[in-house]
Amino acid sequence: MEQTDTINENNATENDNTYNSNATMKASPSKEYSGSLIEDTSGTKSQKDTTYDSTMKGVNEKDHDLSDDGKSLLYAHASSNFPMKTIDRLVDDIICDISYITDFNTTNSDPIGNSRGLLRISPLLYSHKRQNMDSYAVGSFVDQISLQTKYEFKSVTCPEYNKINVYYGILVNPNLSLKDQDQVIDVPFYHLKISVKTRPYLETRMKQVGVTHYHLIDNLHEFDEPDFPEFDKKHPALIDHAIYVSNDTNRIILIEIFESEFLSPEDTASFKKENIMLRYQEAQNRLGTLLSDTIVSPADCFNTMFKIFRGPLNRRNPEDPIRTIDRDNISLNTHINPEWLVSKYNFVLNEQKDENTGEISREYEPPELSTYMDDPKVRLLRDTYIRRCMELAFRGQLAIKVARKDELEANTKTRNALNSLHTQFSISPLYQVSGESNSLRFLNSESHSPLDINFHFINLSIKGYYSDRDIIRNYETLISLDHENIGIYYDALAYISNAKGAYQLVAYCGKQNIVGKEALDTALRIFKIDPTETNIADMDEKLLLSIYKHETHNGDVSSHIDLKNAARILAKYKQSDLLKFYVDYEPYTVIEQAYRTLEIDESVDDDIVQTAYSIKINDAPGLMIDCNRALYTIAIHKRSMSLLNFLVCQCPLFEEFYSPEKYSYQDALNLLQVNENANDEVILNVFQQRWNNESITEPDRLLNLKAALTKLGIEKRSKLIDHFLKTGTIDPNCLPPENWPTGLNNIGNTCYLNSLLQYYFSIAPLREYILGYQNTIQDFESNTNILKKKRRIGGREVSDNEVERSIQFTYQLRDLFRSMIYSKSRCVTPTHELAYLAFAPSNVEVEFEITSTSVDDQIRNKDEGCDTKVFSNSISPSEEDVSGIVQSNDELSNLIEINDTDYDMLQEEKQKKIEIKSDIASSNKVAKISFDQLENALEMGRQQDVTECIGNVLYQLESASEPISLDDEFEQYDLIKNLFYGKTKQEIKPINDSMRIRAKYERFLSLLVNVSDHPRDIYDALDSSFQDEFLNMDEYGDVKRTVSITSLPTILQVQIQRVYYDRERFMPFKSIDPVRFTDKLFMDRYVESDNEELLNKKIETTKMKEQLRSLKERQKELLKRNESGLSRKEAFMETIKFLKSDSLEQQGIEVKEKEELEVNLNNLIVNMNNELSSIYNEINILENKITHQFDAFQDVEYTLFAVFIHRGEASYGHYWIYIKDPNDTGIWRKYNDETVTEVSESEVFNFTEGNTATPYFLVFVKEEDKKGIEPLKRILEVPEIEKLD
Predict the structure, then answer these.
(1) Helix (H, G, I), strand (E, B) or coil at 747
(2) Minimal CB count within 10 Å: which of 163, 564, 740, 1067?
(3) Using CB atoms within 10 A of its CB, is residue 287 exposed (0-12), middle (13-18) or buried (19+)?
């Protein structure tokens, strides 16, 4: 006999000595006795125990000369036995068997008539009832020292090879509601015994791959019967049993379920408090001893009886001393009826007379159980004792749980004794004893799926983790054993195929070519079609498809599985390629599944998706449909034209079912809802609106829109539409200039200035203000004379020179914006004066002169060596674009000739326009800037941080603006403040004096977030900026510093700090860690609030983040590598390899306890793996909770509309900006100097690791103000000569 589990031996020692102080140790001439049992036995047997005598008589007399070589299959034809079940099915049968018997009043029984359970019946008979059955908990002893409940024996007939493992457990309904200890004895407890015989020789040579099939057998082979001597089908306590044998190695699993060991009314009554008290009083009267006032509870009785029955079990051999119980033992007489030891429990009452005193002592002697290996009758009795101990232990622990406080305090000894018994409720031991380690691995690593108790899964005896091959093998085995129910098994297989979404199973089902009437009728009912009133043969496939789409859209995920299964059946019956294709290639309901299929991250670009698809198809051609579904899902999720094009190329079926030829020209117009006279730009605009903004209720909606647009493009022979269909973006070269934003030429290190100017241009209120700017320095001085000495911007006064410079800068910006609106060119060039004034710090004085040569003219003079005309800083360059008057000689020569009268009329009209324009205020001053100054400024721009340039630009715009009002500190309030500035509140709260709160208010232009802490997303980064801090201040002592937002701007700017200084290398470096963000930002959690729920959420989040930080630090510590580049785990593994090698022996070095060291290292590795796995799971759970912590707080909503990008390193690189058109087509455009192109959202939201093109400035607009974002503003006037024509 060998123990399978051990635990601290002290538990057993402590419990055995519990009653030593109350017992007298006696000696017998014939036997050796030691100690007090509170576990004694007697010679009288209970009626139940004596019932087996005749049954077991002669078991030892069987011919034990029978021999089994252990190498032959004793059940060669077991695979033809029915039912067949897997270990998972058997385990589930075990935990549901009692519920099936008691709750469903079953009448099923075998010929013997003592089994009404489900262990030996086909799953078809109970699969539909499974969801209504209670799953009983399986209780086990983990501690095999306190009570051994797991045994291993050598086979009697083949001790060399075969072995038997035995497991004892408890079955109890976990849905208990107890209020008092008196109720514990009324709880039904059942006993489980599993005996498994394995044949290792066959296991190593004939074990089949995959899930093992077990087949029911009625009787054991004659070579196996001696190994199960205590098994008796007629055992009076046996409720249900079954014998299963595996078809490959003939592994035997014998399952027995017994009723409670304490069922009689007198047993039940003896544990009630009322009877315990009577017994207590009787003991006091009989023994004549004043007993203590300690309250005796049912838990005390359970504990005492547990020790009584455990005593004989602890004897290992007959030579060990026998521990008896004094007949007058107080605990014995108060906790149980001592006479039962003889009448019920096989104890013997011995009497001894002391020769010296003549006193007679009486002691209860327990039965001899240590000879159970040789005597089957003893083994039967030992089984009974084990079951009694287990039941008493679990009842005792249950009593402790429901005991009142005073009952627990009255006898802590009992409570400690019972709680020290290491028990557990788990089905893992059932897998362990059966040797099914593979199933146990899945049991421990995966959560249970609700589908596991679906009747289809039960009918095929499978679970969700089974491979496609195992499912098919189960199906084929069952239809061969139970052919008359092949339709049921086929329905189950089809359902499982759809539930798992595995194409291999779907393909296998398709080859079966079976559609039963029941399946067909069920499919029609799922489609809400009455099969009795409808002829399915007359129904059109398109009608069925429309019904499927409608039901899919309105149903839930669980019903979708049934719907999909029904659609496959109908497609098969109708032989509909369309319906079959739609169901086969229907996108995944969860986008993550698509990315997992292609083994890529959600943040990758379209080209990476295509590459991953191609690799996956090459590596696993059998997964082509799964990969196509994944690609289709991602394409729809991203609304990516390029991915849909790629899908059509890779899977011609999509071209077949969504061909533009299926539409007429009018059908295509109707689908897109455009007029037949609409031009290409209008058609594309409508298409983009529907493509980007329309909710996708049907997965193929985008494919149908694409097919309709393709049809229109073919009919109209449109290059614009053709280019869009190929790339998913609009080619600006195919559009008139007025339909596309204007680019800006780079005049030297001005790429980020260009980005900034495009950004400001897209903000309509700011742009309109600048376009309408008419102030001169004289107007400003006369209008603001009262305020000019008081007003402050950014906390400082504004000098006259700064005002003049700012006015000139605003004129330059006004001229540029006009050029961007009215120019016919696709790009315009900012003036060098504008660049200089933007880059040069605002406090740098700039001289202006009335008549001079502009910097641009100086550059042209320098480059061309000729004189140029001096232009003022007002509207001169853009005046050409606005009026459309100036034409090149070539253009004029191509115009139609006109007469002198017409020409004079045109000149008069032009003069009127010029006069109108002259009404707009302008400056006749230009900046007095040398070429060298400009070069220095441009170099300064290259080195400048973008926020410095933003500060310069906005400061000058404010300086050139008249204040709307001044605050108490004379800070100017104007349009710039209204658009871009918010206000924060910083509070210093002393910990010990909550009344002394100091508050400080500050304006902010942008919120700064750091990537140095590796934030998971933009919220995580912002949280760090607004998290509470605990500081120590000289004035207040320990304080808490809080920061919140009291006023939010219309335009919220978030700067991502990426440049840091490397103190070791003495140089700056750029962090390219991705910071995830979406097109929405909710600021509720950062705004000052007295909402208790929100405040509590913030506190919870802080605690979770601290927990998360600790977990990540521990994870980092475990994964840290040493000087040799090895992690801790790798170092342990290398050490084990080194110890296993003979390197040390060759050097004459002897390592003591080498094997023990290897075992310890392996244990360390296992523990480390378990800890890392646990940490990983905890991190995932915490991060998910944090992500959704504020989902209920989404009132303060911002929408992303601009993303500044820097590609390169800290000291060099290139800038561009993405700007969204939120009110028109919803498209994103990339403004890269003179080039403006449309881009996909995936390019904007690209969070790929290692990408040096990183966002460094994010701009959001309040949701209610997003109409003020207007990136496209073009007005091109037709020249007057062309109008006349």
Answers:
(1) coil
(2) 1067
(3) middle
Backbone angles phi, psi at 85, to 5 degrees: -140, 155
Question: What's the CA dihedral at 330, 331, 336, 338 to 10 degrees?
Answer: -50
Sign of the Cα torsion 688, 690, 691, 692 reads positive
Among candidate residues 96, 158, 751, 827, the one labeled active-site is 751
- b/e burial code for range 1224-1235 (CB count within 10 A of at least 16 → b): ebebbbbbbbbe
| Residue 1072: pLDDT band with limits 50, 70, 90 | confident
Burial class (CB in 10 A: 0-12, 13-18, 19+), 146: buried
Q: How far apart are CA 1022 and CA 1076, in angstroms?
A: 12
The secondary structure of the chain in percent helix, strand, coil, rounded to multiples of 5, reads 50, 15, 35
Give me the torsion for CA of 421, 422, 423, 426, rounded to 10°. 180
- Does residue 815 come out as left (phi exceeding 0), alpha (psi in the -120 to 50 range) or beta? alpha
What does the block give as tokens for 579? Answer: 């319906």
pLDDT for the residue 12 = 37
**Cα within 13 Å of Cα(573), Cβ side:** 24
Cis previous bond, 188, omega within 30? no
Q: Out of 221, 637, 723, 1214, which one is annotated catalytic?
A: 1214
Joined tokens for residue 1069: 């470096």
Q: Which long-range contacts (CB under 8 A, 24 or more apart) does 372-378 make?
A: 373/1, 373/153, 374/60, 375/60, 376/56, 376/59, 376/60, 376/229, 376/230, 377/52, 377/53, 377/56, 377/59
Residue with tokens 């069952």: 478
List all residues 6 or more positions away from 943 whose beta carbon is below 8 Å from its beta carbon: none
Residue owning tokens 């509601």: 177
Quick count: other Cβ atoms within 10 Å of Cβ 84? 24
Count CB atoms within 10 A of the CB of residue 727: 15
Q: Across residues 939-947, what is the average pLDDT?
A: 58
Alpha helices in 527-620 (DSSP H): 541-554, 557-574, 577-584, 591-598, 606-619
Tell which residue, 155, 170, 611, has the closest CA to residue 394. 170
Rounded (5°) CA angle 741-742-747: 145
- Quick count: other Cβ atoms within 10 Å of Cβ 464? 18
Q: Would you call 77 a catalytic residue per the annotation? A: no
DSSP summary character for residue 82: S
Phi, psi dihedral angles at 923 (to 5 degrees): -115, 140
Tell me what pLDDT residue 440 has. Answer: 59
Is 1214 annotated as catalytic?
yes
CB atoms within 10 A of CB 1065: 8
Query: Radius of gyration of the chain from Cα atoms?
Result: 44
Nearest residue to 67 via CA among 221, 246, 218, 217: 221
Query: In the 8-state DSSP scheme, what is residue 1087?
Result: B
Q: Tens digits of per-residue pLDDT, 527-584?
A: 889 877 888 778 888 889 888 888 887 777 667 888 888 888 888 878 888 999 899 9
Helix ranges (DSSP H) in 621-679: 624-638, 641-650, 652-657, 665-672
Crossing angle of helices 298-314 and 412-419, in 10° steps, is 50
Angle (nearest 5°) at CA 730 between 724 and 732: 135
CB distance 331 to 36 below 8 Å: no
CB 182, CB 298: distance < 8 Å: yes
Q: Which helix (H) or strand (E) holds 957?
A: helix 946-959
Q: Cα separation of 227 and 157, whole Å? A: 7
Distances (CA, A) of 518 to 487, 521, 987: 9, 5, 72
Q: What is the pLDDT of residue 764?
A: 94
C-beta separation of 1273 from 767 below 8 A: yes
